[in-house]
Amino acid sequence: MELNIIGDDEVEILLRDLIEIYGYDFTDYSRASLKRRINRIVLIGKFPSFAELRYKLKFDPDFLKEFIEQITVNVTEMFRDPSFYKTLREEVLPRLGTYPLIRIWHAGCSTGEEVYSMAILLKEINLYHKCLIYATDINPTVLEKAMKGMFPLSQMRKYSENYLLSGGKKEFSGYYSANYEFAKFDDALREKMIFSTHNLVCDRSFNEFQLILCRNVLIYFDKNLQARVFSLFDDSLENLGYLALGTKETLRFSPLAARFRQIINAEKIWRKIA
User: Fold this and answer.
1) I need a surface site. Which of 117, 180, 242, 250 has the fewest CB within 10 A?
2) How far is the C-alpha of 89 from the C-alpha of 87, rounded, in Å?
3) What tens digit of pLDDT does each residue of 247-258 get?
4) Residues 17, 195: Cα–Cα separation, whole Å
5) Domains in the chain and their CATH numbers?
6) In 3D, which of 114, 191, 113, 110 has the Cα closest to residue 150?
7) How far is CA 88 from CA 11, 122, 145, 193, 260, in A?
8) Confidence grade of residue 216 (pLDDT, cut at 50, 70, 90)
9) How many angstroms separate the Cα of 230 from the Cα of each of 118, 245, 274?
């Protein structure tokens, strides 16, 4: 079977099915990325034809969950890009410490590694008690994983290194217990977390935040969808609040760029100033 069994026309048919049957709208996602991921699904699943793939997607709810999980990008790690977290620790979160309640939104949180990283930061600078962390994703399957707070034990060495490079001073292993092949993070870290499905493509703002993080999600959207999501974040962000993006993402060429100021050139963190 050739890897490119699914062509451009078939991709459009599948996207239309997802909207009409399930309400998932991926029409403004990067076509190249979607096509590559769908063809990978076809190859791994050994589908003999496009018709069989389409039929299974329409009538097999379990396969739908797997399909959505595969075409939405879920690559993440704890304290990813340690210098970013060091900036949060030293520059951003202390300034938010004057607020009576700090609302933080992790948009596109995937399996939750960055959400737990934030909770650890907030614990260590004694702000966790007055925070609410909203963790959202379009994919309910990855949210279920995030709520459990269990990550592969094999990753803990890497995560511990990231944590120390981000300015952590404690024993990282003190935040979790080994549970067979997984590290289970302390329940206390989840006390202020609120997990919910949210679709950046079509759902509206649901609160006013002091910090929004959406890292390495927008690179898979086309320019029009990026502009819509930036507008959503602008509507959701309190004046003088912060917006944090991934290393390859920027507000610089957005129509909203004049409303934000990048706080440090080396990091993709902007403050809303107008």
Assistant:
1) 180
2) 5
3) 889 998 899 999
4) 27
5) 8-71 (no CATH), 82-272 (3.40.50.150)
6) 113
7) 40, 10, 25, 18, 17
8) confident
9) 22, 11, 14
pLDDT digits (tens, 9 = 90+) for 69-115: 788 766 689 999 999 999 999 999 999 999 999 999 999 999 999 99
Task: Report d(CA 17, CA 59) in Å as an integer.
Answer: 11
Distance spanning both ends of the chain, measured CA to CA: 54
Residue of 201, 250, 253 whose CA lies nearest to 225: 201
Taking residues 20-38, report their average pLDDT: 83
pLDDT at 1 (0 to 100): 40
SS3 155: helix
